[in-house]
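Lab notebook page, bench 4
Experiment: in silico fold of construct C2
Operator: M.H.
Input chain length: 174 residues
Purpose: comparison with the prior construct
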Amino acid sequence: ADFIAEFTFLDEDSLTDEIERWTIQTDGSSAQRRGGVGVIITTPDEEMLKYGVQLKFSATNNEAEYEGILTGLRLGKALGAKNLLIQNDSKLVIEQIRGEYEAKEERMQKYLRLTKHLTREFDTVEFVQILRSQNIGVNEVSKLASSEKGEISADLKMEIQKHPSIEEVPAFVI
């Protein structure tokens, strides 16, 4: 919550016609019983925010990539972004989102549906596949997030996610 409060901006510039686009680079990595997600957000003012999520569940590499994109979308919404450029190095995941590739497995279809659902929260969202060499910074964040030690640097916010985004977690109703 502090992360969001720290980087939420007042909507003073909404009167201008210029589109303020936020760039969100995402990456996911998976290991045997844990994975990690890295997200680097660049605001329209060129401010850079780094966010890592340790995945405490078994995930394929493609599922971890989707978790990264979903984390980026959630953070973008929480920070008040309206126009996003999402960059990720997974050709498969980006092409599924863009409709060029079909999501065949049930879990991938669920991730795709959830991603499409979250994109409706924004005015524009563009998904672009970038080279792995262009994704080095966010790759390091995802590796840090998935590491056993979970080392955190001062400029990196970190959280733990215990369940896949596509799973419904039981909630108590009062």
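Observations: Confidence is low (pLDDT under 50) at residues 8-17. Residues 61-78 form the longest helix (18 residues).
Next step: discuss at group meeting.
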